[in-house]
Design goal:
F1FO ATP Synthase; cell membrane; lipid-binding; 81 residues
Length: 81
């Protein structure tokens, strides 16, 4: 029982860590591409900014779903009988 709880806690930490790393890499790449595109075509900056914020929300939503799954495993553990 203790081994299962320990492994679930480790898995929750890995889920949150990988999700945070993926979200930060995704947002940093998107921000860099936004700066490149706005420097190339400054007249499209408002449209690009809107698209950037929508994509940032989607990237953060994927991370928050991973956190919710980790919380599910931490507090309502389906592996413990």
């Amino acid at each position: 029982m203790e081994l299962t709880l320990g492994l679930v806690a480790l898995a929750c930490g890995i889920i949150v860590a990988v999700g945070a790393i993926g979200a930060s890499i995704g947002i940093s790449l998107m921000g860099g591409k936004f700066l490149e595109a706005s420097a190339r075509q400054p007249e499209l900056m408002n449209e690009l900014k809107t698209n950037m914020f929508i994509l940032a929300g989607l990237i953060d939503a994927a991370f928050l779903i991973a956190v919710a799954i980790a919380l599910l495993f931490a507090f309502a553990n389906p592996f413990v009988v």
